[in-house]
Amino acid sequence: MAKSKILICRDIGEQAMALLRAQPDWELVVWPQDSPADAQWVLDNAPGSVGMVVTLGEKISEKVIDAAAVAGPELKVISTMSVGVDHVDLSAAAKRHIRIGYTPEVLTDAVADCSIMLALMASRCVTASQAMLRAGKWGSLGWGPYLFCGPQIGSGPTKKQSTVGFLGFGRISQATLVRMAAFGVTRCVYYNSGRVDRTAEDRALAAKLGLESVGRVELDELARSSDVLFTLVPGGKDTFHIVDEAFLRKMKKTAVLVNPGRGPIVDTDALVKALKEGWIWAAGLDVIEGEPNIPADHPLLHEPRCSIIPHIGSATIETRETMALLCAENLIGGLKEGKIGVEYTL
Ligand code: DGY
């Protein structure tokens, strides 16, 4: 019997690959380099594949999904090693009854940790202080009473009121809130598309974390009242540029914006202006519009109050290995048992 063709757009590591290779009736076609698979290679190899393993680096467009249907058996499962699914054309997949496996939850702690790191890096002027240090200028500047000072995250010595805001209030936001509570934030506001009434859960969460309140607000209020704001909504057209010039102009001058979500949530040009003109204090970004093709002269790379890291929120060894295994298991479950362990549904 002919083996089923499985397209592996990226080698996802020893353990997960061993699991995939152990399927006797599968023939794995693996992108041979340690880089995102070339778009033409994906397109050329899609026909006849019944399953695909993908990462954020590959764009699984309608063209790829259509190409998969051109010859041989139908594509049944796309398994992505990510919680985000904005790199897959979900409606094209749904039209062809292709199911999607993904890897939420296992990366929640790593991304929440990284979100806190970015808030601290941005508020405590890490970019500017590192630049000074690496330029060999510490000796001439010495220690200054207000050198590289930034706003306190949380209540601090003055016991100030401090509000943490979340755009989106899913798992990662809530894990980040738990961490922020330890910094002495007093209040949490969030915005989500808000179809479910969370009043009772929010009260219980506030009591559990020792906060005055946790509650949903409209976008205007989120912008106006957040001292630190985390943007943790999924990518895609519904969230494109939610944080735009109008939003940024409403924020506090001392506010810190942290984007661990998806680059296009924040309008880059508006953010550059906001930082240059001091509408907000600083920004910490794990993601940025246009990534990964960010040229060395990108304006945000030259903003002293902007800390940028290259989409490494989930990059702990344990997290990535767990994501890879889950990704492999989702594909195996979907194709062998008709049941994807963790399935993304529209
Ligand atoms: C994801 O999985 O979508 C994160 O952005 C990267 O781990």
TrEMBL record:
This is Glyoxylate reductase. GO terms for cellular component: cytosol. The lineage of its organism: Eukaryota, Fungi, Dikarya, Basidiomycota, Agaricomycotina. It comes from the Eukaryota. InterPro entries: D-isomer_2-hydroxyacid_DH, D-isomer_2_OHA_DH_cat_dom, D-isomer_DH_CS, D-isomer_DH_NAD-bd, NAD(P)-bd_dom_sf. Residues 116-313 form the D-isomer specific 2-hydroxyacid dehydrogenase NAD-binding domain. GO terms for molecular function: glyoxylate reductase (NADPH) activity; hydroxypyruvate reductase [NAD(P)H] activity; NAD binding. The keyword Oxidoreductase applies. The keyword Oxidoreductase applies. Residues 6-338 form the D-isomer specific 2-hydroxyacid dehydrogenase catalytic domain. Keywords: Oxidoreductase. PANTHER family: 2-HYDROXYACID DEHYDROGENASE-RELATED, GLYOXYLATE REDUCTASE_HYDROXYPYRUVATE REDUCTASE. Gene3D superfamilies: NAD(P)-binding Rossmann-like Domain (3.40.50.720). PROSITE patterns: D_2_HYDROXYACID_DH_3 (PS00671). It comes from Calocera cornea HHB12733. Belongs to the D-isomer specific 2-hydroxyacid dehydrogenase family.
